[in-house]
């Protein structure tokens, strides 16, 4: 075999990207019939041990079926050869859908959403990460931006070449922290880009003598590192439908109903969107991550934030207007993260009386106004119990997928149970 010029990848329940390589000559056959894969791989924890209570054992086979629209060509870099990289659906050996594939789960959620509403979901994942190996520097500073060169310029170029449509690249507030945003796109593409972006960032950092970490925390008392998921809805003609000047927060009724589903199921959703043993240390008040389960205009402590729009240069607000879900991090699988938000939003849209229109807290609301908002889970186990208790959310999943997710996440918790918070944060950071 020549070097694995092709790599076909999936992303697992802990957000780890795994897959198989093949020589370039196999390009056509890999596209046609994929590469072998094993159901038990879904039972792997982030720490690379298989969870004993996973639904999958030593038998069974799957295919990793590349989606040809995901093909990117990663250019060579110094001595490191380039490669063709694909994202795959995990299928049964005959090519039919496998009920536990995270990417298939998102495709179905999006299909169901459009069938029920006639609307399409547009999304973008905003990533923060920490770049280790630089001089200490001030938040948001030009110094930090320059210290990260040539990594920064190379990263923007790499993401552009790979079709990830980078938008902003900035030094952030936390120690050694940066942020990268990409343009909004169709929801499946947005989640695919999130899977790839983390890998491309980490890979490039290593080649520049640095180390990139997307872990939710580097230090229990330090600044959190989040993934914020921006969502908007458009009609068949691509016209945005979330904006309505006459409504609270300028959020159209369809958006309010969509939000009500996310708010109602938020505790269970976090078991998918922030699923590591240290994710809930970040999701606490006064950290500008999420201070509680509420919807608010331009408030960085809201679970769902109505983002600002700008009228400069005559830009219209409709297209910019979007909802930002802030309780995600990069220990989650992007396909599952977006899928559970869409499913919850759809439950809100379809839901009737059980999903009352939510309060839209205004930008100037005081802490006292938020006193009664529900709290997020305070630990991974708390979130997993909320998931088991929420029969609406649990019902979205193939029972084997649900069992395996609970098993993987509980085993991760057990593996780190004897550590202090500081050690746990370090251990999680070492694999993200
Ligand atoms: N670092 C914060 C988080 O943990 C987000 C800060 C911001 O709004 O960019 O989510
Ligand atoms: Mg940020």
Which features does this protein show?
binds magnesium ion, 2 domains, Creatine Kinase, Chain A, domain 2, Ubiquitin-like (UB roll), 432 residues, single chain, alpha+beta, binds glutamic acid, six-stranded mixed β-sheet, ten-stranded mixed β-sheet, 16 strands, 34% helix
Write the layout of secondary structure elements.
Elements: E1 6-11, E2 17-22, H1 27-33, E3 35-37, E4 62-66, E5 72-74, E6 83-91, H2 102-117, E7 120-132, H3 142-147, H4 151-161, E8 166-171, E9 177-182, E10 185-186, H5 187-207, E11 211-213, E12 227-234, H6 253-273, H7 279-282, E13 292-297, E14 302-306, H8 317-320, E15 323-328, H9 334-350, E16 360-361, H10 380-389, H11 391-394, H12 399-415, H13 421-429
Helix pairs in contact: 2-9, 4-5, 6-9, 6-10
Glutamic acid (GLU) binds at residues 128, 223-226, 282, 288-289, 300, 326.
